Amino acid sequence: MHAVELREVRKRYATTALDGVSLVVPAGQVLVLLGRSGSGKTTALKTVNGLVRPDSGEVFALGENVARADPIALRRRIGYVIQEAGLLPHLTVAENVGLVPELLGWSRPRIAERVREMLELVSLAPGPFAGKRPRELSGGERQRVGLARALCADPPLLLMDEPFGALDPLTRRRLQNEFRDLQQRLRRTVLLVTHDVGEAMRLADEVAVMDAGRVLQRGAPREIREAPAPGFVADFLAAAAPE
User: Fold this and answer.
1) What are 21-28's contacts with CB under 8 Å, separation 24+?
2) CA-to-CA distance for 3 and 26, rounded, in angstroms?
3) What is the residue extent of each domain of the chain?
4) Helix segments in 33-168, DSSP class H
5) 10 CB contacts (<8 Å, ≥6 apart)?
6) What does each C-alpha distance from 127 to 102, 133, 134, 138, 151 come to in angstroms?
């Protein structure tokens, strides 16, 4: 079963945001949507949890037709990691991480134990970090907390929108490597959006290159690197290559 499937999805704003996008994300795989700003990547991602309703086509997530699903129940089965982490500033690290389990009605002891496990999983010692506020953390620490929060309720699906884009290069590479190691252990289904070619090639099982609301090429990272489609895909990868 595919964890995520888009079937001929179209969404029109002032300009075309999605133009007949069809994609599948097999369970346990990382699919990266790669392209420049305005290519439709984030719009495609938002169709998966119903934040964007397509004008036509169908979207399925975790075995449900998104248009017919209870949106709140569906979203609580999905983990989210976004740029700048999106932490609630008035909550502690522990409260941020345990937010979804609390909404799901978990007991306090169960939440506390799970929060401890998640902080350790992302290499943040619970003792020093659990009681801190987001403003007391570095950018890399906030992203780790965001990842811990996304994983806390054990969701089968993660949606990640430029998750490491606001970090300095060294911190970004370190967190990319940590995410890759976590994924090898946890095997979550991941739909990740980025404009960073290197990030896409490091993290993806498959890459879908998008432009003007369409998927121009999809394949394993090595296939995309070695045989980019003529035109935009080849030009986009060439522009990202080190001089």
Assistant:
1) 21/57, 21/210, 21/213, 21/214, 21/215, 22/57, 22/215, 23/208, 23/215, 23/218, 25/189, 25/190, 25/191, 26/2, 26/189, 27/1, 27/2, 27/3, 27/156, 27/189, 28/3, 28/187, 28/188, 28/189
2) 6
3) 1-28+53-69, 76-187
4) 41-48, 71-75, 93-97, 99-103, 108-121, 126-129, 139-152
5) 16, 18, 19, 20, 21, 54, 55, 56, 57
6) 21, 13, 15, 17, 20
**Which range has the worst mean pLDDT, 84-88, 93-97, 120-124, 168-172?**
84-88
Model confidence over 19-69: pLDDT tens digits? 999 999 999 999 999 999 889 999 999 999 999 999 999 999 999 999 999
Architecture of domain 76-187: 3-Layer(aba) Sandwich (3.40)
C-alpha distance from residue 211 to each of 75, 195, 207 (Å): 27, 11, 13
The answer, yes or no, to whether residue 243 has pLDDT greater than 60, is no
Residue 27 and residue 134: Cα distance in Å, rounded?
32
* Two tokens, residue 208: 């879908």
Asked if pLDDT for residue 98 goes beyond 90, the answer is yes
> What token pair was written down for 201?
């090639």
For 163, phi then psi, to 5°, come to -65, -25
Beta-strand relationship, 214-219 and 206-211: antiparallel
Beta strand extents in the chain (DSSP E only): 2-12, 16-26, 30-34, 56-61, 64-65, 78-82, 157-161, 189-194, 206-211, 214-219
